[in-house]
Amino acid sequence: MTIDFKGSHFPKSVILYAVFFYVRYGVSYRDLEEIMAERGVEIDHATLNHWVVKFSPLIAANAQARKNPTAVSWRMDETYIKVRGKWMYLYRAVDRDGQTLDFMLSERRDTAAARRFFKRAVGTNGVPDRIAIDKSGANLAGLQSLNVILKFTGTGRIIGIVQSKYLNNIVEQDHRFIKRITRPMLGFKAFHSAAATLAGIETAHMIRKGQLAQTGISAFKQFAALAA
To answer: Where's the Integrase catalytic domain (predicted)?
Structure first.
């Protein structure tokens, strides 16, 4: 999907540079405003926020469509993200090699949220052989619910469920990059902007892990290529 930048008062390259810098390096919008000014671009932090919220989900969708194939053994876990002063839940899944599969911000940590996340991840990546989760009853119930759906839709595939904290170490370690980037952002003011920004952060993390198979070009150029 080609992203439309029509109507913007700045060149596409400037917009993409600002968005990439924010989601990759973990700065505040005030800091980013100063950084852009040092490069001769006078722009206020509200506009920078608008760019990140508008374009990050579109770029993330293209990254999901273009990423390398992933393994059929998954690891799933949640981490915490503060929005409007309250802790919310970022559901995340990686494969056995640590490659990002999918992510979803949720206001609740319950069976419905877990089921929604698993359905989303399977819709994006296909049905895995097995998924390792923690001891959460909600995650177990959500995955079992998805298996019922798979059984009665005639796919012939049932996902193996493994509850093991040891196997989930890889996704817990992977949370650290996301938390390191979000920490300097000083919290999110709205759910939709948090979800959009996290999509950009996850995309930058995928590029960092080499999931787009674009060797020989910089991380920023890989990010910018996702807008084409």
So the answer is: 65-227
- pTM here is 0.94
* Domains in the chain: ranges and CATH: 73-189 (3.30.420.10)
Backbone angles phi, psi at 182, to 5 degrees: -75, -25
| Residue 190: pLDDT over 90 | yes
213 half-sphere exposure, CB direction, 13 A CA radius: 7
pLDDT digits (tens, 9 = 90+) for 60-90: 999 999 999 999 999 999 999 999 999 999 9
Residue type, 208: R
